[in-house]
Amino acid sequence: MTNVHELAKRILKLLPGVDCGGYGGCGYPTCEACAKAIAEGGKTTLCPACDREAIAEIAEAMGVEPVDVEEKLAFIKCAGSAAGKERFKEAESCEAAKAAGFLKGECQWGCIGIGSCIDRCKFNAMKVEDGQVIIDSEKCTGCQACIGVCPQELISMIPKDATNFIPCSSKDNEADTLTACGYGCIGCGDCAIACPENAIEMIYDDKVDSRYADIDYDKCVGCVTCTVSCRKKIIVDTYHDLTKAKEEVAFVKCTGGAKGNRLLKDAGFESCKEVTLEDLNSNGICEYSCLGLGDCVKVCRYDAIINEYGLAQIDPDKCVGCGDCVRECPREKIVMDPYKGAKQIQCTSKASMEERLKVCQVGCIGCGDCADNCPNHAITMVDGSPVIDCQLCENCGICTYVCSRGLIVERQVPEYNYLQMEAMKINSRQSDERK
């Protein structure tokens, strides 16, 4: 049987090693006491500051199955002007400042900005900037020591990978919120109505006859619909690096469609789902083309798709990679492109060259010049159509040069999240206007 004392010493080495002074989520005054509690049969997840790797190692030391844990960060539900910060900046503590009371025009719900929570943080993850407490997501361990000290009850724990935050706790009516803060939630409910996962609830407080929005992260999938619908554009991600490239954007594998689209509309078709293969063949329309009737346009929540010249066109800057259009397209003409700078071929026709030329003047004719000239053999002909292996492609540009139809394009993944950045720009302008 493993010696409890030795086991506790082993577990202690896996803990963060910074005592939270009894304020952390484990409930013990020191890491040593926490380690002992775990060694004596406590939960392997007892220390909330441990990441998944550390918890797995603790489970191994205990000889039990590892438990999957959701890593969390501290989040302050306030992003505007700190409540009464100019008057309170010399106050002894946030609690003392609150006890002094607020004046008309000051937000009584927001961050006071003295920084009492900072004294609790032993990981240097918090600082005050212009009267506002800022949390460094890279340093925050989710130990929970900062939560109980806030007299405004603004600090909560959110999933580390969450992307949508409502940085406001105001319960004032719309007029008072707008007067006190340029970033405040006005309780309009647009975000809750728009959320496709019902992850946002409007909570009514009968004491002040007002309501505010709250996100249920167990339901939130990070689709940023709330960011788009928010009138105040305050629902943004300030914890993650938004300059990193998105993983995927949608891409339409067709470059023609005007002729077929016109014939289908003349025949009375209003959606892509109505059209059958027989309809296409009888009307002399390419059976591999985008029909351009707009099924994908209707489901796109971000205005990232338009129909132009009978073809769906995707704006990669607005596309968030949700995949709704991919699932909606009955002809599988839209794919998700996960590669930055990868080549794509805008045609998937498998018909003979003669048939292709009959129905489309701009599609791939299956000549094979791109495959014959690729120095890395990254392009192969499958059923008369070229297929690019993005793992072999070195982006040399030869295929683009030799393609007589101009169908091989480079699909650049945007280097920022359009919706979030736009929202943050609006916040920045509001801040400038208030100075």
Tell me what the structure shows:
The protein has 435 residues and is α+β, with helices and mostly antiparallel strands. Helix content is 28%, strand content 14%. The strands form 7 sheets. The chain has a two-stranded antiparallel ribbon. It is globular and about 80 Å long. The protein starts with a helix and ends with a helix. The mean pLDDT is 86.
Report the radius of gyration as a whole number of Å. 28 Å
CATH class wording of the largest domain = Alpha Beta
Shape by Cα distribution = globular
Main sheet properties? 2 strands, antiparallel
Helix content: 25-40%
Individual helix count = 17
What would you say about this model in short?
The chain is α+β, with helices and mostly antiparallel strands.
List its traits:
single chain, 435 residues, alpha+beta, 3-methyladenine DNA Glycosylase II, Chain A, domain 3, Alpha-Beta Plaits, two-stranded antiparallel ribbon, 14% strand
Topology:
Elements (H helix, E strand, L loop, with lengths): L3 H11 L16 H9 L12 H11 L9 E5 L8 H4 L5 H7 L15 H5 L5 E4 L2 E4 L19 E5 L14 H7 L9 H5 L5 E6 L4 E6 L9 H5 L19 E4 L5 H9 L10 H6 L12 H5 L5 E4 L2 E4 L9 H5 L5 E4 L4 E4 L7 H7 L9 H5 L5 E4 L2 E4 L9 H5 L5 E4 L6 H17 L1
Antiparallel strand pairs: 1-4, 2-3, 5-6, 7-10, 8-9, 11-14, 12-13
Helix pairs in contact: 1-2, 1-3
